[in-house]
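pinging the channel bc i need a second pair of eyes. not urgent but kinda urgent?? the chain im working w is below, pasted from the shared doc
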Amino acid sequence: MAIARMSHLRLVGLRRDQNKILDSLTSKGIFEARATDCVQVTSPSSGESGLYRELKLKQGKLAFALDFLKARHAEAAARLKDNAREVKRGGTPLDFTLSDVKYSGGRMLITRADFSDAAAREYELMHVCEELERISFDIADCKTRASAIKSSTAAYAPFAVVPLKLSEFKRVGDIVLSVYHNRAATPPYSAFDGLACAYEVRQSDGLVVICVCRAADFEQTDKRLTALGYAACPFTDDCTAEQKLSAFSAELGDIDRRLWELTKTALAYEKYVNDLRILYDVIELDIERAEAEAKFAKTDSAFVLEGWLPEAAAQDAADAVTEACPATFVQLLAPEERDEPPTLAVNNKVVAPYEDITNMYSPPKYGEIDPNPIMSVFYFLFFGIMVGDAAYGLILAVAGLVIGMSKKFDTGFKRLALLVGMGGISAIVWGIIFGGYFSIDFGDKKVALWFNPLDENGGPMQMLVLSIVLGCLQMVVGYAIKFVALCKQGKPFSAIFDAGSIIILFGALGCLAVNMFLLKTPVFALTIVAIVLAALGAGLILFFGGREAKNPFGKVIGGFKGLYGLINLLSDVLSYCRLFGLCLASCAIGLAFNTLGGILFDIPYVGYVVGVIILIPLHVFNLGIGVLSAYVHDARLQFLEFYGKFYEGGGRLFAPLGERTKYIRYR
C-alpha cells in the first residue's frame, strides 16, 4: 500500500498508426499523455484546430439536446400534474404518458460494446440533435409570440370596460371622443372644470375616463388629464378592447396547444437519451485525444508520444503497442529528477475510500509516503467515537456497506458510502464500549463495557482523558513518520532535533499520565524518567532549534522560538477535545429526545404510538447531524493536527486517457 511507481513511456511511431496506438493505450485506461520534451506544447485549439473545434461543436450540440430534453420532460411532468388536478374537478385528461427516463442518479453502467455502438451511430444521433435543435427554435418562436401577446393583453386589458370600438375614439366634425387610463386611480374631476365636456369614469385596474368634448376644448382637456397621470388610449382597432382580448386569448390557446405538440414531438426522442449520453463521452474521449496530440512532436510521416504509465503495467502496455504496430519504437524510462510524475495511490478496498479524504486536502507528491493506510485507522476510530452509539452505528454500517457494494451507484458515491459504513462499524464498537443504544438511559444497569460518557461518576472526565490520549497517540505517530521520512532523505540530525525531540516530550507526558491515572501509588522512578525525558526534549529544541541560523544570536533566538512553539503543540492536543464534545453532544441530544418520548409514552391509549412517531424523525435528525459533524471534524483533525506534522502534499492525481467521462462508467 503505497504510491505506485511510474514509468516514463517514449514512443516513436508512424502517423498512419497513430489512432491504433492511442486506441491500444486508451483501452487499458493506464496511460496519461505528457508534453514531448522536443516540442513546445500548444493548446489543442491551435494547430489542428479544425478537428478540435468540430469535436467541441458536436459535444455542445449533444449537451444542448440532453438539457433540452430534460427541460421538456420537466415541463411535461408539471403539465400532467396540473391536468390531474383539473381532471378531479371534471376536466379532460391529456392523452399522453410520460416516459420513465431518468435524468439523475449518477453515471450509467455500460459495456465497451455499448460505447462502440454509440460511436458507430454518431451520424444518426447527431441528426437527432439537429431535429431537437429545430424543435427548440419552433418552441422559442412560440414563446416569443406568446410573450408579445401577453404584453399586448396587459396593454389592452384596462380598456375592456369600454363598450365602443377603439376606432371610434377620434375627432368627428367639431366633436372629439377620447378615452384615458390612469393606474394610480387619481380622480379626474378637476380636469373638466370650466370646460364643456361630458365624461364617464369606470373602474379598471385604476380608472378609465371616457370623454366627449368640443374640438376647441380638447387640447386643454388632454393637457389637464395628462397632468393628473392619465394616458390616452393608443389603439385604433376596429373592434372593442374586449373583442381584442378574446382574440388574444384564442391565439394564446393555439400557441399553448402548439407548444404541447412540440413538447410531445421532442419527448418522442427520449428513447435516444442514453445513446446521446454515451456519444457525449465518446466525443469527450476524442477531445482528450486531441488535447494529448497537441503534446506530440510530429512530422509528415511520424510522431513522438510521451506519457506516464504505472510501472507494474508498463511493459504489458508497451508489448501490446508493438504487437499491434510492429513498426513502433517504444522505450520505458525511469522518472528523472526534474520530472513531476502523477500520483497513483495503490491501496486495498478497505483503505481506498479514505484516499478521498486526503485528496480533499491535497494528493501526496510522487515518491512521498502514502499517509492513507495510517490515517484511515485514526479516521475510523475517531468517527466511531464522535457518533458514539451502537444502534446508530448499525444503521450506518448496514446502509453504507450495502450502497458501497452495489453496482448501481457511481464510484465516488460508493466510496463515500463505504467510508460511512466503516465509520458505522467503529460506532458499533465504541457504542458497546460506552453502552450507547439510541441514547437509552438504562438506569443503574451496567451496560457499558468500559464507561458511559454521560455517567455522573466521572464519565465526562474519562471521555476527555480518552480523547486527549488518542490525540497524543496520533500526533506521536505523525512525528514518527516525519522522523522516518527525514532519515530516508539523509537528514538524521533534522530527524532527531525536529521530530525526535517532540517524541521525547510526549514520552515524558506519557510517563506522567501513567503515574497519575493508571497507578494507584505513583512510582518515583517513573517521575524521574519523565523529568529526564522532558529536560532532554526541551534541551534538544533549545540548543538545536536555531541550528540553521548563520549567526550565534540567530541560533539562540531560534532555540527559544522552538520552545515557544510548544504552545502550538498544546493547542493541537486540545483540538482533540472535539472527540469529547461531539460524543457527549450526540449522546445528550439523543437522551433529551428520549426524555421527550418518555413524556409522550405516558399519554393514555395513544402514548406509545405518538411517542414512536415523534422519536423516529428526532433520532434520524440526531443521526444525520452526528454523521455530518463526525465526517467534517474527523477530516479536520487529520488535515491540521495529523498531516500538519509530516505531510507535504501538492501532488497531481494520475489522470489516464479515457477516464474523463460525465455520463458513463464501464462494467
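so The domain at 156-249 is CATH 3.30.70.2750 (Alpha-Beta Plaits). and The longest strand covers residues 6-14. — does that match what u expected or am i reading it wrong
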